[in-house]
Amino acid sequence: MGRCKAEMPPTLSGLLEALLAAADEQELTLGRLFAMMNARGLAAAMLVPTLLMVMPFGLFPGSNALLGLVMAFVAGHIALGLRNLWLPRRLRQVALSGRLMRRGLRRLLPLAAWLDARTGRRLALLAEGEAATRLAGLVMLGLSLFAAIAGLIPGIPTLVSAVVLLLALGLLLRDGVVMAVGYGATLAAVAGVVALWPGA
């Protein structure tokens, strides 16, 4: 693992289009997919498990705990100031269906364009620089671990993961306003978890 000097894409659409182009060329491996994301920051890699967590996939037994640990793994890299995601060699070689990737990415492009049109580089203090990045990583790490631990309690993993997704998007888009909303949502999520917690 190490630090990466490559810049993240200026837009979320740019990231998705780069992945789509790669999927058009050939079937992607998991290692290549994450390598492309790493060149644009671990915030992009963070979107994968968080999106899966907030989607129906996260409803399968045991999946919340697994995805929460994956989220924590990526968030830990961010908190440490790293930019390269470590993966075991065998896992890097896992092949992904190019057809399924293309279908999923094309469905996400309109949403990405919508986000790009409404976000930008604002409140840089909250979204750019090592201190801001590490702080976000620490918050996402704590939330991710909690999502994994509380996986058996309906609703809580989805709620917490939605907040992590918001913070990851803020870092990816370098938008401090999104980050501020994410930190506010973190406080709201903590209050919501306390209210939903059995016996509270």
Furnish the topology, listing elements before pairings.
Elements: H1 12-25, H2 30-38, H3 42-54, H4 63-79, H5 89-92, H6 98-118, H7 124-127, H8 130-149, H9 156-173, H10 176-196
Question: What number of structural domains do the residues give?
Answer: 1
Unreliable runs, pLDDT <50, ≥5 residues? 1-9
Gap from first CA to last CA: 42 Å
* Rounded Rg: 16 Å
Q: Specify the number of helices.
A: 10
The strand count comes to 0
Proportion in β-strands:
under 5%
Protein structure class = mainly alpha
Give the averaged pLDDT, no decimals. 80
What does it look like?
- The chain is an all-alpha fold and 200 residues long.
- The chain has one domain (12-196).
- Helices cover 70% and strands 0% of the residues.
- The chain has helices at residues 12-25, 30-38, 42-54, 63-79, 89-92, 98-118, 124-127, 130-149, 156-173, 176-196.
- Helix 4 (63-79) runs antiparallel to helix 8 (130-149).
- The chain starts with 11 loop residues before the first helix and ends with a helix.
- 34% of the residues are buried.
In short:
The chain has helices at 12-25, 30-38, 42-54, 63-79, 89-92, 98-118, 124-127, 130-149, 156-173, 176-196. The chain is mostly helical and 200 residues long.
Features of the shown structure:
200 residues, mainly alpha, 10 helices, globular, disordered N terminus
